[in-house]
Amino acid sequence: MKEFKRDRIYYNYRKAARLLAYGVLAVFGVAALTCILNIVLLVSAAVVYVNTDSVYIYGGRVMESLTPAQDGYTLDREMEEEFEQKDQWAMLLDENGRVVWSVRKPEELKDEYSGADIARMSKWYLEGYPVQMRAWDDRIMVVGMQKETMWKYNIEFSIPWMYFVKRTMLAFFLINFIWIVALAFVFTKRFTRNRERARIEWIAGISHDIRTPLSVVMGYADTLEHSEELSEEARQQAAVIRHQSVVMKELIADLNLTSQLEYSMQALRKEKVRPAEIVRSVAVSFLNDSLPGELEIEVQIEKDAEQLCVKADRQLFVRVFRNLINNSIKHSGKSGSVEIRIAMWEEKGKCLIRLEDNGVGYSEEVLRRLRSRKKDPAGENIRGLEIVKKIILAHGGEIRFGNGEDAGSYCMIMLRRGKG
Amino acid sequence: MNLYDSKILLVDDEKALREMVGGFLRRAGFHKVTVAGNCLEAEELFALKEPHLVLLDVMLPDGDGFSLFKKLREMSEAPVIFLSARDEDENRLRGLGLGADDYITKPFLPEELILRVTAVLKRVYRVKSLQEQETIALGRCLIDLGSGVVKWNRDGADIAEKEITLTAKEYAIIQKLAQERGRIVTIDALCDAVWQEENYGYENTLVVHIRRLREKIEEDPSRPKYLLTVRGLGYRLV
Fold first, then answer.
1. What is the ipTM of this complex?
2. What is the pLDDT of residues A139-153, one digit of tens each?
3. CB-neighbour burial class of residue A122 (10 A; exposed 0-12, middle 13-18, buried 19+)
4. CATH T-level fold of B132-237
5. Cβ–Cβ of A215/B201 closer than 8 Å?
6. In CATH terms, is domain A268-416 a member of 3.30.565.10?
7. Which candidate in B60, B184, B185, B231 is best for mutational testing of the A interface (most A CBs within 10 A)?
8. Record: contact B106-A211, CB cut-off 8 A
9. Is A230 helix (H, G, I), strand (E, B) or coil?
10. Domain parsing of chain A, residue ranges
């Protein structure tokens, strides 16, 4: 049983891993993009700030370049030029609110300010002029700009509200993050599904387009093969063409089926089927088409397993047993007669089917390839068996291939019982 | 009506395929074959020629075969065999109660096509005569499938020694086996034939019916010569 488990887990893991990888990639992609965008915005904000906001003169610098003199104050020459250049003005108020010094002060402004005036201008504007204030000992330095050049706003929040924000900020970011992740998942899923669908449709389209011309090739090759006007050699060549076109037909069907099984589970048309009935009908169809003594199929179905039903695509299950029996016939070895034993029984509500033959058995290489998920197109062609495996896995069943103790190969299939 | 006098309408958009299939049908003896390349043509020719059978491609340049099929069915009950190049169609054809008589997946071999066409024609147009005429000879006994009576003859004698009537179930079994004479018929297929749907668990009852049937048709029912058991699989009439 060990091998089965490995196969299945590996299978599910691979599909999940692929999806997860896409998801992670997308999340990181979105995150990186967001980061880059943020940085760009920040940098541009800084550049704009440096170019516009920081060029203004503020109180501190004015105070540094202002020196007390006998009849008031003197401003450095440089600073004065800067005021000129930047079209700003400044004034110094003493403890009584009187203007004791000023530079380029607009004429409409008063020379004395009450406590209420000072309070107002500190928060808002002074007669429409945006002002900056700086306390200097008991004096106040007021640096102003022209109207409509600076936006001012005071903010204040209650401490409880700030606490609330502090506590909820983390949750807020977390929710945002989850939202982004979910969005990324949805997008990648849709993206990959669309890609899968496109691929399946592409293969279906191609196989459709090949089938009609192949019908013509097959039909005329068959006609030539039976034509009495042709030489024996030509007829044989026609037979080869016909045979090869049948091979191509099977290849196309396999390609289509493989792509559907690999990329979309929805392709299955599940219905209630009885494996016992399918096994018997496939066995009989082989026996009816074989010559006497050529093929022997022994079918043993336990009474409990007889009525077992599973949910499955009937046509695909027929395919499973056809492929297995075909494989046994192909690898029958030298003995000439093929003996196949099919046993079916019930175990813990599961349907078990074991098919064994007296052929040459699987080679080590074939077994290794059947047990791994890696695609290895080199070596012996085991497409038929790979399809068997895919069909069983797609139905949630388990499968194991191996060699018998004496001779021949076996294949164990375990199917889950269908509900209802 | 002679089978080969049946009028056949072939609808496919691929000219090479039309010519080839038309050729096969003519060579097989069907001399009244008409071809159409699209839905419009097919509808016109269908109304004009009143074919006995239509071979219909699923994908046509001016519509799909399924809707054309519905239109044709409104006009007449003539049997239709679909030609399909897509596996997806197979699902639809198999599952859906479209009422199509058969379908063939491309690519196909000529024999397959001729076989299907002949089978459908026989089934649809000559189904009665087939049953009426059929009798099966098994050694000294003769089963008349028309009346469901088994006649036992002494060697060489013309008059039946004794006549046994088959029950409905025995009749269904022997009919199914006779259809596939020489081939194995699975237990499941026999159950299907006798009890139709929902026949789970009738295998044991089938065994009883087979035993009674053997008592009626075999000289030595415990050592059957004609109705053979294929262990684990089914039965075969030789």
1. 0.74
2. 898 999 888 888 888
3. middle
4. Arc Repressor Mutant, subunit A (1.10.10)
5. no
6. yes
7. B184
8. yes
9. coil
10. 59-144, 180-263, 268-416
